[in-house]
Structure formats: structure tokens, C-alpha cells
């Protein structure tokens, strides 16, 4: 009998996180969803999984999530780290407190749960971690200052992590969405995309599911842009 695979999705109550949870459940994963709004708990109930209401900025909440999952299912195969929205302002007007909030929202949201799941994945000799980042991590835009700054840091963190744990068969990759339908749509933003449309949360979820799957077993330390050609680099 095949072992049932288990996935944790943080900030998974809505948007790309929720879409990823639904896709992974459809692909046969047992899913556990963390969200601060309570929507993740409701979605997990629909999907026959575990739902916990709380913040991914709390080490105690994250430990409770991981302990609950391992107590029930005995393993963690996939961790998907989504995020909320951090402070936005003109670059020199962002306060110290807002920069620290951005750090919590866009970088520590990955670092905290990764510390908890890594020993479990090491013991299993397998695991995949997928972080939902941003297309503007490498071509930063003034409209998303804290996101761009800390997700550039996430790219560095991901490369170091991938190098460190590849021998344990643990992979980490980032998905870099552009304008997605979970955001307010404007003609200007749509026209800036070579494909002339917003992407969908389901398209991001499909990318997450691929990177979480064995089909992506030789991919680690990468930043995969899913933005309709909005940002490009050689």
C-alpha cells in the first residue's frame, strides 16, 4: 500500500495559498492549513484535513501545527509557505517598525516553519518546500518595497538551504507570481503583461504542485517566474 503524502500550507485561507491547498488535496495529499482568518480551518474541513487558526509569525502556533500533523499522520512531505501583505510606502518613509513587519511577513514566514519541518524531512530522507514569493524579487518595483527587499533575501536563503539539505533529498524552490487574479485588476497592469491578462491562482497552484511532486525531483534552489512574461532575465 502506498504511503499517503502530507502537505502543510501556511497562510492558506485564501488566494494562492488556498488554491495550492485545494490542488494538493486533489493530487492526493492529506493537507493541513494554517491561516489567521479562520478561512483555512473551514477549507481544511472541506478537504478532510487539519485546519488551525493562528499566525505564521508565532513559533508556538507553528509548533502546534507541526505537532498536530505529525501526531495524526506521522510525516510531512511538503511545506508550502504563502504570505499575507506587508507595509507599502515611499521607500524612505517606511519606519523601522514597518521594516520589521515586512521581515516577519515576507522572510520569517519561511524561516520559522522550515526550522520545524527540516528535522522531520531529514528523518524521512525526503521533502519538498515551496515558497510563494514575487516576480519583483529580482526586478524590484517601488510599489512593493518591503516585499521586494525581503524576498530578494528569500532567494539567498533558498539557495543556501538547497545547498545544505540536497544530500538529505530535501528540495526548496520559490514560485514568483506576477499579477494574479487574487489582486485588484487594472487595465494598466494588465497591459504591462506581454500575455495581456492576469494569471490565476489556479495557475500558481499548479506550479506549486509540480514543484512539490516527484516530477520535480531534480529541481532545487530555483526561482520560477510565473508572470506572463512580465519580468525576464537571461
Automatic annotation (TrEMBL):
Gene3D superfamilies reported in the protein's UniProt record: NAD(P)-binding Rossmann-like Domain
InterPro entries in alphabetical order: NAD(P)-bd_dom_sf, SDR, SDR_fam
Pfam families (UniProt xref): adh_short_C2
CDD domains hit by this protein: BKR_like_SDR_like
Family (UniProt): Belongs to the short-chain dehydrogenases/reductases (SDR) family.
PANTHER family: 3-OXOACYL-(ACYL-CARRIER-PROTEIN) REDUCTASE, NADPH-DEPENDENT REDUCTASE BACG
Full protein name: NAD(P)-dependent dehydrogenase (Short-subunit alcohol dehydrogenase family)
Amino acid at each position: 500500500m502506498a504511503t499517503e503524502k502530507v502537505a502543510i500550507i501556511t497562510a492558506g485561507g485564501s488566494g494562492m495559498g488556498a488554491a495550492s491547498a485545494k490542488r494538493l488535496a486533489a493530487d492526493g495529499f492529506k493537507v493541513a492549513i494554517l491561516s489567521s482568518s479562520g478561512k483555512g480551518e473551514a477549507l481544511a474541513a472541506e478537504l478532510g484535513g487539519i485546519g488551525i487558526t493562528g499566525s505564521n509569525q508565532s513559533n508556538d502556533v507553528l509548533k502546534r501545527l507541526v505537532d498536530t500533523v505529525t501526531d495524526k499522520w506521522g510525516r510531512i512531505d511538503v511545506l508550502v509557505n504563502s504570505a499575507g501583505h506587508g507595509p507599502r510606502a515611499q521607500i524612505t518613509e517606511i519606519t523601522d517598525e514597518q521594516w520589521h513587519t515586512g521581515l516577519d511577513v515576507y522572510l520569517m514566514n519561511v524561516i520559522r516553519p522550515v526550522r520545524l519541518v527540516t528535522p522531520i524531512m531529514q528523518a524521512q530522507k525526503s521533502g519538498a518546500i515551496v515558497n510563494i514569493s514575487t516576480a519583483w524579487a529580482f526586478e524590484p518595483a517601488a510599489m512593493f518595497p518591503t516585499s521586494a527587499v525581503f524576498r530578494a533575501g528569500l532567494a539567498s536563503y533558498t539557495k543556501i538551504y538547497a545547498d545544505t539539505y540536497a544530500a538529505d533529498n530535501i528540495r526548496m524552490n520559490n514560485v514568483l507570481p506576477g499579477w494574479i487574479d487574487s489582486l485588484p485588476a487594472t487595465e494598466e497592469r494588465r497591459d504591462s503583461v506581454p500575455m495581456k491578462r492576469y494569471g490565476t491562482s489556479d495557475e500558481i497552484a499548479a506550479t506549486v504542485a509540480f514543484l512539490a511532486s516527484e516530477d520535480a525531483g531534480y529541481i532545487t534552489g530555483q526561482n520560477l517566474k510565473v508572470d506572463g512574461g512580465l519580468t525576464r532575465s537571461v
